[in-house]
Design brief:
single chain, mainly alpha, 83% helix, flat
């Protein structure tokens, strides 16, 4: 594989398989998924997004600068919304989960949101 896109795709598939195995083990054990499950899903999203974005990211033009700027701003707004939701849900006991799981989910959402917003803006522009 000479292409970094292919490498990103293979790594994305690898991490999604690992996440699937971790999720399957959690289902079989009738317990919530391990904290690493959310991180594995986020890493898979990163790899699939980078496979799509790689040809565009190597260009240093105004379009990529605009995509990065708008994607980062949209991600920041989404993260504030996630933070407000999680703190409100914890305050009113809508979510009965340990803080460790919520930090893992929040971290995975932050990582995924940035790259998914880049993909969306890359398609728009």
């Amino acid at each position: 594989m000479n292409s970094p896109r292919g490498s990103f795709l293979i790594l994305g598939i690898f991490f999604i398989v690992l996440a699937g195995l971790t999720g399957f083990a959690a289902i079989m054990a009738e317990s919530p998924p391990a904290g690493i499950f959310y991180t594995l899903v986020a890493i898979a999203v990163v790899n699939f997004s980078m496979a799509y974005l790689y040809p565009q990211f190597i260009q240093k033009d105004e379009r990529m600068k605009l995509i990065r700027q708008k994607g980062t701003m949209a991600s920041f707004v989404a993260m504030v919304i996630y933070f407000i939701f999680f703190t409100t849900a914890l305050q009113f006991n809508w979510i009965d989960a340990p803080a460790y799981y919520l930090f893992q989910i929040f971290g995975a959402l932050m990582i995924s949101t940035v790259l998914i917003s880049f993909v969306i803006y890359a398609k728009l522009y």
